[in-house]
Design a protein that fits this description.
This protein is mostly helical. It has helices at 2-5, 29-58, 72-96, 101-128, 137-168, 178-203. The chain has a single domain (28-62, 72-203), classed as Four Helix Bundle (Hemerythrin (Met), subunit A) (Up-down Bundle). Helix 4 runs antiparallel to helix 5 (137-168). It is elongated, with a radius of gyration of 24 Å. The mean pLDDT is 89.
Length: 204
């Protein structure tokens, strides 16, 4: 009877399946996942920048190709638009941390509109630039770098569209705003990458 009364090892604290993962990092899984994704995307951009490096530095080819010109002024205005979108996004992020729902909605909607404007101008630039990717190596690299960034802007706009919709439905608060911060990290990455692309492709 005494043996039957003894508690079995782990009684009341049974755990089925593999042991729980040890979380030594203070970064939450969603943020960590986004950061790791961004690192992988930097590597993709790095491959295109390597091609750019070989054309301009190793081969010493003229940039842009002879007889072509890049619209530096338009690209500069577009850069200001995208940088402004990071400012409005920061406004939205700080607003929701203070339960300022108007600031969140106004900031995130403005960010989405600025991003859409940037993408529209970029597409319009492709239409009027005067050369195609298959015309020369410089054209391939130009469209490759700017097009890759444009694809990231499209993904960012989808994320911002979801955040905007949820913001207007009141899904966020000062204690629950991870859904704004994680897409925000991605959008800030898109902005920084464009500054690098702009300085490298259009200015240098």
């Amino acid at each position: 009877m005494e043996a039957a009364a003894l508690p079995t090892p782990g009684h009341g604290h049974e755990h089925h399946g593999p042991p729980e993962a040890h979380r030594s990092s203070r970064v939450d899984p969603q943020t960590l996942g986004m950061l790791l994704f961004i690192i992988s995307e930097i590597m993709v951009f790095g491959a295109f920048f390597t091609a750019y490096f070989f054309i301009r530095v190793v081969n010493g080819d003229h940039w842009p190709a002879e007889g072509t010109e890049l619209p530096k002024l338009v690209a500069g205005i577009n850069t200001l638009i995208l940088v402004s979108s990071s400012v409005t996004l920061h406004w939205a992020e700080t607003s929701i941390k203070k339960d300022n729902h108007f600031g969140l909605r106004a900031g995130i909607l403005t960010t989405f509109l600025l991003g859409a404007t940037f993408l529209f101008i970029q597409i319009n630039e492709y239409v009027h630039i005067g050369f195609a990717p298959h015309d020369h190596a410089q054209g391939s690299v130009f469209y490759g770098l700017t097009g890759l960034h444009g694809a990231h802007v499209c993904v960012g706009l989808i994320l911002l569209g979801i955040v905007t919709t949820r913001a207007f439905r009141g899904h966020y608060s000062s204690t629950a705003h991870r859904g704004v911060e994680v897409p925000g990290i991605y959008w800030h990455f898109v902005d920084v990458m464009w500054i690098v692309v702009y300085l490298t492709v259009y200015i240098l």
